[in-house]
Amino acid sequence: MSNNTHYELIDEVKIKHPKKYQVYILNDDYTSMEFVIEILMNVFYKNHTEAQKIMQEVHKKEKGLCGVYTHEIAETKVMQVGKKAAQNGFPLKALMEEE
Questions:
Q1: How many structural domains are present in the chain?
Q2: Residue 89 lies inside a defined structural domain of this protein
Q3: Buried b vs exposed e over 21-60: b needs ≥16 C-beta within 10 Å?
Q4: What is the pTM of this model?
């Protein structure tokens, strides 16, 4: 195989980046603002100021963007929110949307 053939093959390979997913927390009439902040800090690793800002977005716009992740991580975050909410008696939900 000549060097030219080798380089042509390399040029044909396209690198695909994994799809990214936005994870949102959804507003409801029962979950406390304090619990939403706690979720944002413990599941999404936001500092208190960031968590308050996102919580206000959830309250005013019906949903707030918590982060952008690969599919597996986004799916895990959504499940963690649901599990922690249920354990604490709240109906809080999160969802993921392809970017």
A1: 1
A2: yes
A3: bbbbbebeeebeeebbbebbeebbebeeeebbebbebbee
A4: 0.83
> What's the Cα-to-Cα distance from 47 to each of 19, 50, 65, 68, 87, rounded to whole Å?
26, 5, 15, 16, 23
pLDDT 10s digits, 38-88: 999 999 999 999 999 999 999 999 999 999 999 999 999 999 999 999 999
pLDDT attached to residue 9 = 59
Domain residue limits at 87: 16-98
**Domain presence at residue 64:** yes
Task: Report yes or no on 5 lying in a domain.
Answer: no
CATH number at residue 75: 3.30.1390.10
* 18: number of Cβ within 10 Å: 9
